[in-house]
Amino acid sequence: MPANISAYFISDAHLGAGYLRNPREAERRVVAFLDSIKGDATHLFLLGDILDYWFEYHDVVPKGYTRFFGKLAQLSDSGVKIVWLAGNHDIWLFGYFHDELGIEVRDGSLCLSLAGKTFFLNHGDTVGFRPLKFRFIQSFFRNKICQKLFSAIHPRWTVRFALAWSRRNRESHSEKEVNPHDNPLVDFAKEYLASHPEISYFIFGHLHSLGATRIEADGASAEVVILGEWIHRCSFAHFNGQELSLHTFSYKSDRSPQ
What we know:
Elements: E1 7-10, H1 23-37, E2 43-46, H2 66-77, E3 81-85, H3 96-101, E4 104-106, E5 110-114, E6 117-122, H4 132-142, H5 144-151, H6 155-172, H7 184-195, E7 199-204, E8 210-217, E9 220-227, E10 235-239, E11 244-248
């Protein structure tokens, strides 16, 4: 790995969500952030739920996200290593992002080393305590037969259904802060660290909370980072090759709402 590491981590933009006040402006916000790091970034990690819904068919992909995809392609073409970890909203990432945009797509966890530090990355929906209902839905969505059956339904129905489900789920679960120092992901990290003392950083999304906490297990020490979200906060993490820090992106639009 080169010494001049500059890695960025974001999650939970939920682009395209029906509950966003101005979906296009939300996309421009993320694009503006990507534009701001284009001369600095060596790595970009998208830790899931970047899109509120995505299902690509063999020869067709959903419309929209033109500015966002174009900026990702520009970063990838310039040499930035981009990795997209699927979340519970953008599970169905298949070959399009790799083939068209040069992005590495992962489903689940990823461990990697940057500048001598070992990172454990996961959206946060496949580790730690998960209610039985949530685990059942996850297994259903990841089942290959169910995916085949779903792909046989015309998108005019599946897209509306998925976005309506997302909206109802958001409305039924109030947007409340989760303690970044005491939650199931921190509990998981402590247990995992005991058998993997080489981990320096655990980075998760999913909870829509922002924060970091230091954990210890059997003499090993690591930092657990919860990335926040891009619906209200526009938060991200940055690793400069020596330390990891949390930030929020300031975006001011000169456009009137559409």
